[in-house]
Amino acid sequence: MVTPAGRLAQVAGPAGPLDLLTVGRGEPATVFSHGAGSSIDTTRPFASGVRGARTFFHFRGHGRSVVPDLPWSYADLAAELRTVADEVGATRALGVSLGAGALLRLLCDDPDRFERVVLVLPAGLDRPRRGPGVDELQRLGRRIAEGDRAAAVEFYRGDGGAGSAAPGAAADAWAEQMADEVVAGRLSAVGIGRALTTVPGQVAVPDVALLARVTVPVLVVGQEDDVIHPASVARRLGELLPQARVEVLPAGGLLWAHRATVRTLVSGFLSS
């Protein structure tokens, strides 16, 4: 059962307990899912200005959620997202990076599950991702799983699971803070390591033809010059989804250089 709004709770997921937090109340009810290595806290800025009840949760391997044995798949993540959405009666959903992949996988099975959907920094679709960016994520994932703080700093400074990379002292301080969370155990080093080493190379969408059945409005937010989340994926989704609106922002970090723009886009779309 979910505890009162505004308090961290746990819900029984397909493989074990999942952290859950609901803030606000009323309609619409929206569920927010984070990126690899990210968290409830780092996903909450995407809900700024959104009306109604907003529910955040930790996928497997993140926060205090279950850390099941490998292998992990987007189907597993989609099942966790569905469990949380059903628990809170969510009619709208936003997914960031890994969360966007899980949301797409859910929509392949149930294209009408949500009334409105936001996909932030989708990283891949029907082909396994390859290349230096993925290789680097997997390398850092192996080191993070071993408790390497320097690897955690490097990961959060470079990507942070939410396309939040940006130059400057503030971004560096944030990376150091997140690395401390990992080392202290408030974010699971083993779980994050498994997410980074296994999920990036997997396929989120088994067949892109399935996306033609998703006739609900979808907002896709991408970013230029993002190696991990190529803008080409966002633009391709604009061609595959019947009611997609695509916004590709300049480089600089969505939550650093473009926070106000992202807030306006997301809140306007989900609150309408």
Q: Provide the β-strand percentage band.
A: 15-25%
Low-confidence stretches: none
Sum up the overall morphology in one term.
Answer: globular
Output the strand order for the largest sheet.
Answer: 1-2-4-3-5-6-7-8
From the N-terminal CA to the C-terminal CA, the straight-line distance is 29 Å
Kindly state the percentage of residues in helix. Answer: 40-55%
Explain what this protein looks like in three dimensions.
This protein has an eight-stranded mixed sheet with strand order 1-2-4-3-5-6-7-8, with helices on both faces. Helices cover 40% and strands 16% of the residues. It has helices at residues 40-43, 74-88, 98-109, 132-145, 149-158, 169-184, 189-198, 231-240, 253-257, 259-271, and strands spanning 9-12, 17-23, 29-33, 53-57, 92-96, 116-120, 218-223, 244-249. It has 272 residues and is an alpha/beta fold. The mean pLDDT is 92. The longest helix has 16 residues, at 169-184.
